[in-house]
């Protein structure tokens, strides 16, 4: 008889799904399947803050320094980030709704840029400005970018270019290898939906559709995910259960383990806290990312990091670094824990954060 699905079990499943034993950088990214990226540094970029909990002896910037030597790619899944090549291959060739056969065929400036990069190799956007001029085009954020930069982004999106490395945070592009013959759409969608459920497990069923609405940018021909979920449940790859009137999905074999008594300060985009609906269901409060909220309207802070203590997210912390020291300002839902074990665990987490921020 299956164990009842209780809030305690759900929390332990979520933590077990998100935190495995620390591994080497490439192995950790492969195990995670996807790491969301964000440029804000407060006190470090989101991808670095996410990886520090999952990679042995990880330091801020290790991913960018080692990117060119790792079997990973930058691309868009349900958000923009870093992924192992196995995930990347599921996304390409990406469907182009404006093409008769669904395959993207660049034309005009994009075709010229593609030919230039294929001939030259690794190309910085500045190199294209020197070759093609500085004409501007409206970008996806409603502001203006160099037309050549927009061409690079489009060629990257359709898998004709890849990000080879970054220089001072700027993407350097190179030709992408030819993509393998794609899986059938149904098989590809099943594998992608299974991956997303694994990353965010246990995932509330009500969160699946809005998550897939974001996923449709990475997988334009995704369609309705319900068919994929039905097939995955029928094959035994996914399991489901109900708790307090909410249905949840998770990969088969996910075990609920008691969480260790450690404090972890999490990035706002960490897989454990990414789905705000699940966060509220499991920890009974609403976390908000307020970096783009006017300062006067913030309740938690510019870059409040959820604070995981054992199996409970008991509050948040804002962190700043100066001269090698980290200042952490915590906030709590309710009152702060009184026991010495929490204070010691928080001090240990601050010490880990300081080490993480020290340059190699």
Topology overview:
Elements: H1 7-18, H2 25-32, E1 35-36, H3 46-51, H4 62-66, E2 72-76, E3 80-84, H5 85-91, H6 108-120, H7 125-132, E4 136-138, E5 144-146, H8 147-157, E6 161-167, E7 170-175, H9 185-199, E8 203-204, H10 205-215, H11 226-235, E9 238-243, E10 246-251, E11 263-265, H12 276-283, E12 305-309, E13 312-322, E14 325-332, H13 340-357
Antiparallel strand pairs: 1-3, 2-3, 4-5, 6-7, 8-10, 9-10, 11-12, 12-13, 13-14
Helix pairs in contact: 6-8, 9-11
Mean pLDDT figure: 93
Enumerate the strands of the largest sheet in spatial order, edge to edge or round the barrel.
11-12-13-14
Tertiary shape: globular
> Helical element count?
13
- Secondary structure category: alpha+beta
Give the radius of gyration.
22 Å
Low-pLDDT segments, ≥5 res: 138-145
Tell me the number of strands.
Answer: 14
How large a portion of the residues is in β-strands, by DSSP E? 15-25%
Helix content: 25-40%
Give the SSE order as H and E letters. Answer: HHEHHEEHHHEEHEEHEHHEEEHEEEH
Largest sheet properties: 4 strands, antiparallel
Distance, first to last CA: 52 Å
Structure in a nutshell:
With 360 residues, this protein is of the alpha+beta class. Helices cover 37% and strands 20% of the residues. The strands form five sheets. The chain has a four-stranded antiparallel sheet.
Protein architecture, described:
The chain has 360 residues and is an alpha+beta fold. Among the domains are: 108-175, Orthogonal Bundle (Arc Repressor Mutant, subunit A); 263-357, no CATH class. 37% of the residues lie in helices and 20% in strands. The chain contains 13 helices and 14 strands. The chain has helices at residues 7-18, 25-32, 46-51, 62-66, 85-91, 108-120, 125-132, 147-157, 185-199, 205-215, 226-235, 276-283, 340-357; strands at 35-36, 72-76, 80-84, 136-138, 144-146, 161-167, 170-175, 203-204, 238-243, 246-251, 263-265, 305-309, 312-322, 325-332. A hairpin with a 2-residue loop joins strand 9 (238-243) and strand 10 (246-251). Helix 6 (108-120) crosses helix 8 and helix 9 crosses helix 11 (226-235). Mean pLDDT is 93; it is low at 138-145.
């Amino acid at each position: 008889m299956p164990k009842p699905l209780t809030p305690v079990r759900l929390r332990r499943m979520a933590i077990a799904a998100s935190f495995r034993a620390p591994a080497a950088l490439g192995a950790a990214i492969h195990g995670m399947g996807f790491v969301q990226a964000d440029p804000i540094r407060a006190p470090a970029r989101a991808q670095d803050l996410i990886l520090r909990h999952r990679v042995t002896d990880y330091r801020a910037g290790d991913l960018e320094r080692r990117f060119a030597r790792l079997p990973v790619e930058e691309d868009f899944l349900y958000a923009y980030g870093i992924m192992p090549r196995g995930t990347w291959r599921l996304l390409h060739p990406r469907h182009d709704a404006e093409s008769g056969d669904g395959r993207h065929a660049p034309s005009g400036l994009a075709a010229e840029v593609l030919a230039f990069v294929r001939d030259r190799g690794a190309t910085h956007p500045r190199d294209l400005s020197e070759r093609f001029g500085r004409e501007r085009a409206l970008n996806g954020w409603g502001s203006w970018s160099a037309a050549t930069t927009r061409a690079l982004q489009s060629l990257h999106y359709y898998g004709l270019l890849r990000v080879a490395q970054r220089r001072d945070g700027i993407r350097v592009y190179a030709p992408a290898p030819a993509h393998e013959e794609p899986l059938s759409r149904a098989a590809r969608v099943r594998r992608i939906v299974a991956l997303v459920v694994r990353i965010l497990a246990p995932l509330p069923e009500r969160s699946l559709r809005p998550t897939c609405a974001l996923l449709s940018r990475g997988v334009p021909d995704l369609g309705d995910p319900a068919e994929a979920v039905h097939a995955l449940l029928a094959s035994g790859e996914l399991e489901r259960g109900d708790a307090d009137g909410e249905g949840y999905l998770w990969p088969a074999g996910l075990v609920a383990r008691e969480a260790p008594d450690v404090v972890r300060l999490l990035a706002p985009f960490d897989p454990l806290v990414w789905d705000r609906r699940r966060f509220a269901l499991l920890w009974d409060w609403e976390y908000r990312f307020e970096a783009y909220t006017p300062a006067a309207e913030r309740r938690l802070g510019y870059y409040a990091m959820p604070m995981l203590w054992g199996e409970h997210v008991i509050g948040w912390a804002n962190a700043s670094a100066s001269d090698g020291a980290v200042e952490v300002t915590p906030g709590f839902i309710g009152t702060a824990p009184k026991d010495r074990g929490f204070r010691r665990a928080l001090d240990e987490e601050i010490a880990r954060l300081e080490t993480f921020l020290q340059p190699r």
